[in-house]
Amino acid sequence: MIATGIVVEYNPFHNGHLFHLQEAKRQTDADTIIAVMSGNFLQRGEPAIVDKWTRTRMALAGGADLVIELPYAFATAHAPQFAKGAIQLLDALYCSYFCFGSEEGSIAPFTNSLTLISTQQQLYESAIKEAMREGISYPNALRKGYEAISHDTSIDLADLSEPNNILGFHYMQAANDIHSSMIPLTIERIGTHYHDPALPADSVASATSIRKSIFTNESAEDVQPFMPPTSYRLLKNWEDLNGFQSWDALYPLLRYSILREEPERLTEIADIREGIEFSFFRAAKEQTTFQGFMQAVKSKRYTWTSIQRMLVHILTGYRKATREQITDPSYIRLLGMTESGRCYLRSIKKQLPLPLVSRVASLSDPSLLMDIKSTDIYMSGIQSPAPTLGQDYRTPPIFV
Fold it and tell me: pTM to 2 decimals?
């Protein structure tokens, strides 16, 4: 059986995601599509608008056959670590291909970029360090390093100023680092740009614009044309029962988490560095809204995303000491499957290099405990009258 892997967040699952999933299956002639999906907190340092089980149902309805959770330690990390965790899981599941969306639309530029960096590693790393010393944010420092080695070359290189290209490059790099036999494939992104905030005239909108419409209008009704029918129904069901999750809803919990600690204690939290803990402490005392807090702490040194990632770690209590224990994925957490996915799992189960977890009580692991903890904190901020905690223990894998 041919398995093709994809790395997703589905926040929420929309028509562009459906196109990518269908093309991945068609172009690789796959029998099984395996989606490694972030849990309840995402790579941009924000909560998913609906929980991971609702998004799992969206994925299975859209054509995925297996949905595996990307552990919190990787799902909320910088792009290289995010990609490392996802690619290692897809490789452990014996995928023949991994497929990602990109602005580039061709694998050759990514391969060329990897080759260039490997031959100019010293200059590349030196340029990054110099940019960091100048107070430039990490993503822009990476871009500076890339520009330092690419300005004199005539070969076709990936444009690493584009968000999907950046992740695609790191997927390729992660696969290369572990000498994976998976074949990379990229599908050109269609429709609006990744960060476009406005809904377009056609049926393919960015997840950013869909979320902005939902929060601006306080309703999901306007986004229906941009989502497959099942995804939209699941989105509406969640809205009716719980309301959508957001940083605004979680800010009281975040504010309490910051004020409970002395600034010095905040330095124990993952990613906190260079005195930003004092800015967080002051802003938490003074600001009553999340937007006000972010405006008070933003700076040229840190991107909005990197600040949000720090805040997610404060909220969940994810400490540097815990992160040091989690260097690689140590289990395969099954969130959902189709009959095809179940058949594929049966065919490889005895060869899996990592334990397959369908019941979280069956494994004690610091990474899995972090997933369980982050789910409870996510659900604690839900605005429904009685959010249910302990769902990781209560919810079996979804079978369609």
Answer: 0.94
- Is 193 known to sit in a ligand binding site? no
Q: Which residues contact 345 (CB under 8 A, 6 or more apart)?
A: 66, 334, 337, 356
Closest CA to 232 of 64, 58, 66: 58
317 carries a ligand binding annotation? no
Look at residue 385 in the predicted model and tell me its pLDDT.
66
Pairing assessment for the beta strands 97-102 and 356-357 based on DSSP bridges? unpaired
14 is in an annotated binding site: yes
Residue 190 annotated in ligand binding: yes
| Cα–Cα distance, 157 to 116 (Å, whole number) | 9
* pLDDT, tens digit (0-9, with 9 covering 90-100), for 87-108: 999 999 999 999 999 999 999 9
* 112 appears as a binding residue in the annotation: no
Under the banding of pLDDT at 50, 70 and 90, the label for residue 372 is very high
93 is in an annotated binding site: no
Question: Is CATH 3.10.20.90 the classification given to domain 3-103+167-193+231-245+329-399?
Answer: no
162 labelled ligand-binding: no
> What does the alpha-carbon distance between residue 263 and residue 273 come to, in Å, rounded to a whole number?
11
Residue 195 labeled ligand binder: no
Q: Is 189 annotated as a binding residue?
A: yes
- Domain coordinates in residue numbering, the chain: 3-103+167-193+231-245+329-399, 112-157, 247-324
What mean pLDDT comes out for the span 58-68?
98
